Structures are given as C-alpha cells and as structure tokens.
Q: What sequence folds into this?
C-alpha cells in the first residue's frame, strides 16, 4: 500500500487507501478472523500507510524513487520507523483484542512486522515501476542474468540459514555473510536488483524459521527473542541494500553530473573560441552548432537568424543529421510554426514528445529520423530578437541541457550583435581609410587618438609619430594663436569650419579646408573631436592662377583698348622728341631734357609691348631665324645696356639650326633676360649667351625628353642668384623682387609667354650666390620652309628720289611722320582718311613708291585701301603701321606673315629703317 501511495499523486490516495482497506478486510474474513478484527486491522494498515506516505512526502519532494540517500533516510526513519511506531498503537490494540496478546508484545510485533514489510516490499514495487519506465534497462540478457543470480542467492542463503543438523557450532555460517552478496546485487543490478535479492533472502529466512530450522530457530531463545533477531537481521539487510543502492546511485549521478559539466564546459569553451576567433559570422555559428551536437548529446542543432526585410527566420547554421540548409526548410516566417512563434513570443519552448507537438514545422521528418525531443530558445539582445536556436534529440532532454541552451542563447545573441557591429565598424573603417579626406579624432586633452591613411599620407608622418601628439605638430607657422584658440572653443560647441595653412613633416606648407565636430557619448557629453580636412593647396593655386589670368585678361583688354590712342600719342611724342634731339647741338642745355623725354617714351612703349605680348594680343609674325645672327645684330645694343662692369661671353654654335619665331619677340626675350642679369650683378660679373643644337630624344636639363630636335638658347649670369621659394614664382605675372617702382613683374612672364607662343619651353637654374641660367628650347625649323629672314640696314635713298603716301586718321601722327620722312629726303603725301588717299593717288600724276598706312581706320581698313591703290598703281609697295593689338587687327583681316608692319609707337630711326627695308626689297 505504501509503495502505491508513493508512486501516485495525493489526490488518488483516498481511492487507493479505500481499495487497500477493502482488500485487507476480505483477506482477514477469508482467513476466519472476526469482522471486528478485520475492520480494525484493515483500518490500522490504511492509516499506517497514509501516515508513512505523508511523512515521506513532507520530508522529500516527489517523485519518490528511493535512489538517493535523502529519500532512503526519509523513507526508513520517517515512514518505516517514526510513522509506523505511531500507527502501531492502533494495530497493537487490534492484536490485543483479537489474539489476547499483551499490549507491549502486540505493539512490538505490529511495529516490527509492518515496518519490515514496508522496508522489504516497498523498494521492490518502486523499483519495478522504475524498471518498467526504462525498457532499455530491462533487456532479456539482464533479466536472465538477474534470475540466475536470485536463484543462486536463494540456494546459498538456504545453505547458510539451514545448516546440516550434525554440524558443529564452529562450522555454522553467520547469516550476515550474505550482506556483501546483497551489495554485489546492488552494484550489478541497481536498487531494484538489490531489493529483489533482499526479498529473496527474507523469504528464505521466514520459510526456514517457520519450519523450525535455521540459525533463528534456536530453542535457547524465547519466541519474542527469536522474532526480534529475525527482524534485526532483515532490517539490517534491507537498509544495507537501500542505502548501498542510494549511495551508488548518487555516486553515479555525481559522475554523470561531472561528465555533463565537462561536456557543457567543453561546449562553452568551444563556443566562446568560435565566436571570438572566427571573423565570418556564418562560419562561427556553424562551429557552435557542431559543438552542440558533439558535447550536448543532441542529434540536430540549428541556428536561425532574423531576416528583417522578409520578417522571417533564415537557417544560417546546422549540424548533426542536417548539415546543409537545403536538406530542410531553410526559411520560416516569424509567428508561424513552433520556431516562428518562439521568435514572436520571445519565450523558450521544450517538448519531449515531438509527435504531439503539432506546431513543429518538420515533425514528420523528425519522427522518421527517430527524434523524440525538441528545444528552442530565442536569441535576444538589447530587447531585440536576432534569431532562434533549436536542438532535437533521440532522448528526453534533461533540465541541464535546457539550462545550457538558455546560457548559450544569451552568449550567441551577444556574439551575433557584436559580429554585426564589428562588420559595420570594419566597413566604416575601410570607408574612412579609403576616402581622400583627412580624418582625425582628438580627445578632450586635444591629443590625436586616431588618424586615417590620407592624413598620414598628406602630412608625411607615421601613425606612431602622430598618436598622442597635439595638432600643433601640423599647424603652419602662419597660423595665429588666436585662430587656434578660436578653433578649440568652437569645436567644444557647434564645431568649426574654415581654412588653415598647415605644415608637413618636411616643413612644406599645405592649405586645408577643415571642418570639426564634437563627438558626444550616449549621455550627450563631449568625449572627443572629429576633424575632416581636405587638401585644397592645388585648388587654391588654380584659383590664384585664375585670378592672375583674370588680371592678365583685364590688363590685356585694357592695353588692347587703349593701344591705338596710346600708341599714337607715344608715336607723336617719340617722333617730335627725336626731331628736337637732332635739332639741338651737343652743348645745348635742352638736349638732356629731350633725352629724358625719349627715355620715358621708350619705357612707355616697352611697357605697352610687354602687356600686349603677355596677353597674346600683339601681332606675331614668325619667320625663319638663325639665333646666332640675331645675337650678332643686337650685341651693339646689349653692350651699353648691360654696362661697362659686365663682361659679355658669347658662345655660338656655328652649325646652329634655324627656328621659326617672331624676330621682334626673340629680341625682346634676349633684351629682357640681359636686363635681369645686369640687375642681378650690380657690382659686375659675366653675362654668358650660348646656342647649341639638341638632338631628337635627348633629355634637356630640367625638362622632359624633347619630341624632336631643338635649338638651345642659354642666358646665364654670375649674379646673386635666387632662393628656392623665389624660383617657384619667377614666371608669375606681376611678381618682382625689385624695389617699389623698379619693376613691373611682367618681364619673365612675358618671356614665358613668347617662348610658349613659339612652341618652346624655358627652364631656370639658380642658387643663392651662384648666379642664374635660363635655358630656352625652340623647335628646329624644317629646311624646306625657306631661307633665313634677318634684319639689315639698307642704304639711304637719295633725297627726292622716292614718294611716300602716308595715311592715318590721327593728324598729329601724319605731321610727325611727314616731318621725319621729309627730313630724310622723301617726298611725302598725306591723307587723314582712306577716301582722301584714293583721290589723292588718282590726282597725283607722278609715281608713288610706297604707301605707309594705318591698319585700322574709320570707313576702310588699311589692307582694303592698299588693294584699291594697287589697282591704280600695280607696282605700289606697302608698309603698315598700327597701334592696335593683334586680336583687333585679326578682326579686320589677317595680314600675311611676310607683310611689312611697324608697331606704334616707333622712333624716327625705326621708321626710316623700316621704310628703307621695304623700298630696297626687289
């Protein structure tokens, strides 16, 4: 009865007790006992069983398996001893009434007999129930082995308890030697086997004793003493097997727990290693799933991750029976099926009966593969579901497995989030390192804690040279302290934007466009400063060049617009100054004043030509030139120009090739470079002019290999030289190292413009204290282009032999030109507009040898006028004069490159020389 109560729920006890009492009453009545005795005995037995079960249930929690020391102790002391001692009072009263047994003897008999029954029968029944619930433990081999063991134990106990009657006392075997055999049965067959063995020994003992045989039927003891000896023996045997089995079970459970903990520890270690060392999230999760299968004794392990756009769970990793997502359903909508509901409800789920879990999406597949249990746990991080972890097994999952899953779920969820954050950080890091922007982060102490590759590349530092330093290492020398302070103050507030001139590691400067922003933590506190900068040095240079170009364009437009009138005025000034100069004697006091007027006019004319040449608005008339001849022609001019304290060293290649260039422009280049050299040698020195041929493909100094053969014109001096910073700017427009009022800053800029217009290149080589050398490379002209053109002095014609028609819309120019030409002996006709010139030519009966006409005039351009006059006079020659820029001339019609042209302003000598050249050409 006690065993049935211990194996049942308390709500079933009344029915079991009623049934047991009725059965007990029926047995007593069939045995011939009275009704009162039967009712008393059955009631006493029922109360006894209920008290024992209640005490055991109070001492230990069900289920009662009698496999732990605590349960066995509670059963033996609470059920068998304590509760039975109380209920034996009722039983002793029944025995005393029915069998007239003394009350003490009746109580002891009831207590020991029923207690012994509980101790022997209850473990057998409980053990049988446990054995039947684990069929794997009841194999036929173990049943046969157990049956043979029980039979052998019965035979052996019969021999021990029923010795040969003639045997001497010293040959009798003590019955307690059977106790080790009972322990062996416990060790081999567990608590159920030990209970059966003890029951067998008890049956043999009772059988032998009731027949008056055996060690417990000794006539030297009273009946009570004999019974007490039997009870002590059987109590000892029963408790030995019960406690022995409990201790063995607890030892096995301890070992099992140790093995489980070891497997779980191995799983946790392998899981932690995979999640920490594997960079790829999917690969790390596959390793975790594989570790679950190997260490947690499950058949299948799966990890599903949330696919947010699809609102579904995607199978990311699987191990065990399923090693590839295509073998099972690879996607489950959130909220559908068991796995989807785990994600939606955020609660774990476990079942040890897959066949009855209708919501499991692959239950049929699991049953086919012998799987009986399922467990799933949501992966949650920061109150957000990132996935679900599931396992399936062929056995019931113990509580420890689910606890491990719960612990692993938290770790895996954090690892998934960490991997995703790391992936985002890695992507952000690659983006930061890939950008051309210079990105830096400083802490609250204004020290660099991060800089990207673009920053290091721009400033020329290594990372270890920057980290821990302040931005002072990159601030340029020209950055004022107040700007730095303003930057720091603004960065601690809303940030700062602007441009700074910073300094590289090598000391060179760069201009950066900087934007800074404070970095806040989650509490809104500033923890650092983000700086994003861009190198705008080249951009600013381009802007400067653009401004210079705009300045040049403005100057060119101004010069072009004023060229005609200004050059006419200068022509008048220069002409009359020359006339006055020739009309005064050497001792005339006015002669010096007149020379100053001439010098001022020349300077004004030179400045106008520089502006027009630099702005590329002067007419360019390229011809074939031999630079040697040009240098020979202007040497007479260079000697007084450079002064007596400068020695001229001229080294000319006699085999020099021809070049195609504007003669006047090349003259200008030579004179400009010579003047600069003179200014660089105020105490005297040497001016060297060299020419040579540069073969095709030969690398020129400071220049790339030429595409073809070139002619080198080199002009060098032994003057003060220039610094590296000055060398970078020498060709910039309006840049000059001369004092105020001593230079326009257009000299070398004009030289560069002329060289480039001529298809050449120019380089400069200079150092402080060693002088400067300019090298000009001009393309060699093909021989078939023609013969060299060069200036020459023609003999003056006899006065009155030639007639010249001068046409200009500026009457003052007409007057000065007439005076100059008539003074040279020419007969001069003048007209102040083209129509008058045509009429004058038609009315003039004598020959007209030359027409000297302005190019641009109201009503008719100079070339059109010449065409009209030549139709009247086929042999007429022309010399054009113009004060306009080249673009204005081009707008009126393109002049042939060989067309004679004299630019205003011109001197008297220049005019007469140009006239002689045209008249003397055959």
A:
């Amino acid at each position: 009865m006690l065993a049935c109560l211990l194996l049942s729920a308390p709500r079933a006890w009344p029915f079991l007790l009623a049934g047991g009492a009725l059965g007990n009453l029926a047995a007593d009545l069939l045995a011939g006992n009275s009704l009162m005795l039967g009712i008393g005995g059955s009631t006493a037995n029922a109360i006894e069983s209920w008290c024992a079960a209640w005490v055991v249930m109070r001492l230990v929690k069900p289920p009662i398996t009698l496999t732990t020391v605590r349960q066995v102790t509670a059963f033996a002391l609470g059920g068998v001893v304590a509760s039975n001692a109380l209920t034996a009072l009722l039983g002793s009263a029944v025995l005393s009434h029915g069998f007239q047994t003394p009350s003490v003897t009746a109580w002891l008999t009831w207590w020991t007999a029923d207690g012994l029954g509980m101790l022997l029968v209850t473990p057998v029944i409980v053990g049988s129930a446990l054995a039947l619930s684990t069929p794997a433990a009841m194999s036929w081999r173990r049943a046969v082995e157990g049956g043979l063991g029980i039979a052998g134990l019965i035979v052996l106990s019969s021999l021990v308890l029923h010795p040969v009657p003639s045997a001497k006392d010293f040959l009798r075997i003590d019955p307690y030697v059977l106790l080790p055999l009972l322990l062996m049965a416990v060790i081999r067959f567990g608590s159920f086997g030990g209970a059966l063995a003890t029951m067998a020994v008890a049956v043999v003992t009772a059988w032998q004793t009731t027949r008056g045989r055996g060690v417990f039927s000794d006539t030297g003891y009273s009946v009570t003493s004999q019974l007490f000896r039997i009870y002590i023996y059987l109590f000892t045997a029963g408790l030995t097997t019960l406690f022995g089995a409990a201790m063995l079970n607890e030892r096995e459970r301890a070992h099992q727990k140790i093995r489980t903990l070891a497997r779980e520890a191995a799983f946790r270690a392998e899981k932690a290693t995979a999640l920490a060392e594997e960079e790829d999230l999917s690969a790390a999760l596959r390793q975790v799933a594989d570790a679950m299968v190997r260490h947690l004794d499950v058949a299948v392990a799966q990890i599903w991750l949330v696919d947010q756009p699809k609102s579904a769970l995607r199978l990311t990793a699987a191990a065990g029976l399923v090693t590839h997502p295509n073998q099972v359903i690879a996607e489950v909508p959130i909220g559908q099926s068991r796995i989807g509901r785990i994600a939606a409800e955020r609660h774990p789920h476990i079942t040890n009966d897959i066949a009855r879990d209708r919501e499991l999406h692959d239950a049929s597949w699991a049953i086919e593969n012998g799987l009986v249990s399922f467990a799933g746990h949501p992966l949650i991080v920061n109150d957000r579901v990132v996935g679900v972890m599931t396992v399936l097994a062929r056995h019931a999952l113990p509580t420890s497995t689910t606890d491990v899953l719960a612990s692993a779920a938290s770790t895996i969820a954090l690892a998934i989030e960490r991997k995703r954050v790391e992936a985002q950080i890695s992507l952000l890091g690659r983006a930061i390192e890939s950008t051309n922007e210079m990105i830096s982060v400083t802490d609250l102490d204004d020290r660099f804690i991060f800089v990207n590759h673009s920053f290091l590349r721009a400033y020329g530092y290594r990372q270890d040279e920057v980290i821990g330093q302040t931005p002072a290492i990159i601030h340029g020398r020209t950055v004022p302290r107040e700007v730095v302070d303003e930057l720091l103050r603004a960065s601690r507030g809303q940030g700062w934007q602007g441009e700074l001139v910073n300094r590289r590691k090598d000391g060179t400067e760069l201009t950066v466009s900087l934007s800074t922003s404070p970095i806040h933590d989650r509490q809104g506190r500033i923890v650092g400063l983000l700086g994003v900068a861009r190198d705008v040095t080249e951009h600013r240079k381009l802007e400067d060049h653009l401004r210079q170009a705009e300045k040049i364009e403005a100057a060119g437009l101004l010069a072009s617009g004023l060229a005609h009138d200004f050059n006419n005025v200068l022509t008048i000034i220069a002409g009359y100054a020359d006339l006055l100069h020739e009309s005064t004697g050497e001792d005339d006091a006015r002669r010096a004043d007149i020379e100053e007027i001439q010098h001022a006019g020349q300077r004004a004319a030179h400045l106008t030509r520089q502006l027009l040449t630099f702005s590329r608005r002067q007419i360019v008339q390229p011809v074939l030139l031999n630079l040697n001849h040009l240098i020979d022609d202007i040497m007479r001019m260079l000697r007084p120009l450079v002064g007596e304290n400068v020695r001229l060293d001229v080294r000319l290649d006699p085999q020099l090739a021809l070049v195609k260039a504007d003669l006047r422009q090349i003259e200008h280049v030579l004179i400009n470079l010579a003047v600069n050299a003179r200014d660089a040698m105020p105490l005297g020195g040497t001016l060297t002019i060299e020419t040579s041929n540069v073969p095709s493909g030969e690398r020129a100094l400071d220049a790339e290999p030429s595409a073809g053969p070139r002619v080198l014109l080199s002009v060098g001096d032994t003057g003060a030289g220039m610094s590296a910073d000055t060398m970078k700017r020498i060709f910039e427009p309006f840049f000059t190292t001369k004092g105020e009022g001593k230079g326009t800053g257009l000299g070398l800029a004009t030289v560069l413009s002329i060289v480039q217009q001529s298809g050449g290149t120019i380089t400069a080589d200079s150092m402080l204290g060693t002088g400067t050398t300019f090298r000009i490379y001009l393309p060699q002209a093909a021989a078939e282009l023609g013969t060299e053109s060069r200036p020459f002095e023609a003999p003056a014609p006899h006065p009155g032999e030639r007639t010249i028609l001068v046409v200009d819309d500026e009457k003052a120019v007409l007057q000065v030109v007439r005076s100059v030409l008539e003074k040279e002996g020419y007969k001069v006709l003048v007209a102040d507009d083209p129509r008058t010139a045509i009429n004058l030519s038609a009315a003039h009966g004598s020959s007209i040898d030359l027409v000297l006409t302005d190019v641009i005039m109201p009503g008719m351009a100079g070339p059109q006028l010449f065409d009209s006059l030549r139709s009247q006079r086929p042999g007429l020659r022309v010399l054009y004069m113009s004060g306009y820029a080249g673009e204005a001339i081009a707008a009126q019609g393109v002049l042939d490159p060989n067309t004679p042209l004299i630019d205003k302003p011109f001197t008297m000598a220049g005019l007469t020389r140009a006239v002689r050249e045209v008249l003397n050409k055959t």
In short: Residues 791-796, 890-894 have pLDDT under 50 and may be disordered.
